[in-house]
Amino acid sequence: MSWPYAFSIALCLIGCVVASPFPALSPRDGTLADCLSSSNVPVSNSSSSNFAQLSEPYNLRLAYIPAVIVLPTTPQHVSDAVVCAAASDVKVQAKSGGHSYASFSSGGDNGAMVIDLENFQDISVDDNGVATVGAGVRLGNLALGIYNQSQRALPHGTCPGVGIGGHFTHGGYGYDSRKWGLALDTIVALDVVLANGSFVQATTTAYPDVYYALRGAAESFGVVTHFYLQTQPAPSSLVYWHYGFPNMYTSSETMTTTFLHWQDFALNSTVVDQDIGFGVHIDGSDFSISGIYFGSIDNFNNVIAPELLRSIPAPNFEQVQEVDWITALEYQASGGSVTTLSEPLTGYDAHDDFFAKSLVSPESDPLTSDALTSYFDYIISNGVGAPNPWFSIINLYGGPGSQINIQDASFSAYSDRSSLWVFQHYGSTGNTGSAFPSAIEPFVAGLNDAIPNAQPQATFTAYLNYVDPSYTAAEAHTLYYGDAVYSQLLALKEVYDPAMVFWNPQAIGA
Fold it and tell me: In whole angstroms, what is the distance from residue 73 CA to residue 269 CA?
């Protein structure tokens, strides 16, 4: 996997042994099939010609076989399917783009009903700038759709093939998020089918507790069919910037002092405000930093760049360009070159074979020299010349003016509102079709542990959109939500889905 493609995935989205609540496949499945047939619900099953393609996960390492794949074209189909699944004691998960790192969009185990929302592809923008978006839309098509209709924009990740569903309901970071908030923060309403088959619209005033839960834990509470998103006017121009640095992997001291300078830069309110967003890319060869700036190229070159680059090794690669909004998105998706944002409406066929973990560092405890030295020592010792592709992406969430961190805990079930950095650690086979090497998981786990082991006084958490199947349900609940938010979600689960119709191995109540 080339690093620009790997980088774009991140902005975008072996496990522990978990007792499965799914029933064994048996003649009872005929009851489910009869129920779906009697309601005229479109489906694909194991005898269908498209079943193999539809059931193939994004992460090939975690392939599960659904009991049935529902292919709804209307919310009524979704409602009927959920009722049939509940009556047959079959668990349900929705699939938007299918990029779940843990294959939870395939159920997270064999025998689930997968509700594939591929047919929900509509995009429209009203006079107030609110976009109505079908839950099967992918991010590249979303960006193009709202821009072409209304010259509007949204904050979200940069991998064009990622679906809106999990991305928007579990956070959704882009370089523009420090200015406009997370993708989740733009949701003003959701059309959703609940566990009893009812079809409702959840807002701040209608089903407000469902509205709260869906923004952070949607997979445990329903199947969203449409999102209503508050867009922003797209800027006429902005600055895309990217710097690469040579010979960094010979000295952990040099890497540490460079990153500490960038951390000081990120916290310096005389230079940094909400108009800048950036991330660092590391893979044992490349060491680079890139981002966008919602200001003039003159101010970037005369104020921002000199402070960003002060006192660190000179870059050997530099790209600083004033570009339009769509070009900026294309550059972010490809690492600085023009690519297409458009994705096929059917037949999407991108895959990888990987294991990933995440680390969220608190703004109250910036990363220490000891922690970063531990991290870069680990990379130099284990990651340089590693036999399998890997990368680390470190994105700035906090800092002066960040609109990610302005919301309090009552706003939504997304709990990371005091983070400074979010790390993604990703190891793969390079999608070669070979057996998954046993060394990848411990390498990625060691990479993820290097910082918290050296900074034990800080409380580190994890990011929902980089879901990690190696966690137990209890570990996942603590790391992704924290005790207070999880307690609220568990209480709501008992009200809206006491039979656990919506389940995966880390679902609320699992």
Answer: 49
Chain centroid, CA 440 distance in Å: 21
- Classify burial at 189, counting beta carbons within 10 Å of its beta carbon; exposed 0-12, middle 13-18, buried 19 or more: buried
- What pLDDT digit, counting tens, does each position of 97-123 carry? 999 999 999 999 999 999 999 999 999
pLDDT tens digits for 45-83? 999 999 999 999 999 999 999 999 999 999 999 999 999
Alpha carbons 353 and 250: distance in angstroms, whole number: 29
Over the Cα atoms of the chain, what is R_g?
Answer: 22
Tokens standing for residue 57: 């996960």
Question: Tell me, what DSSP letter sits at residue 75?
Answer: H
Select from 232, 237, 207 the least CA-distant residue to 222: 207
Where in 430-481 does DSSP place strands (E)?
none
Contact 167, 139 (CB under 8 A): yes
Alpha-helical regions (H) of 323-395: 325-334, 369-378
Does pLDDT of 412 surpass 60? Answer: yes
pLDDT score for 337: 81
Q: What is the per-residue burial (b if ≥16 Cβ within 10 Å, else e) of 124-144? A: ebeeeebbebbbbbbbbbbbb
Phi, psi of 441 (to 5 degrees): -60, -50
Nearest to 101 by CA among 468, 470, 474: 468
- How many angstroms separate the most distant Cα atoms in the chain? 71
Q: Would you state the pLDDT for residue 431?
A: 74
CA-based torsion, 12, 14, 18, 19: positive or negative: positive
Which tens digit of pLDDT belongs to each residue from 190-204?
999 999 999 999 999
Fill in the amino acid letter for 464.
L
Q: Residue 433, class by beta-carbon neighbours within 10 Å (0-12 exposed, 13-18 middle, 19+ buried)?
A: exposed
> Do residues 47 and 501 lie in contact, with contact meaning Cβ atoms separated by under 8 Å?
no
Q: What are phi and psi of 411, to 5 degrees?
A: -70, -40
| pTM value > 0.85 | yes
pLDDT tens-place string over residues 307-343 = 999 999 999 999 999 999 999 999 999 988 878 999 9
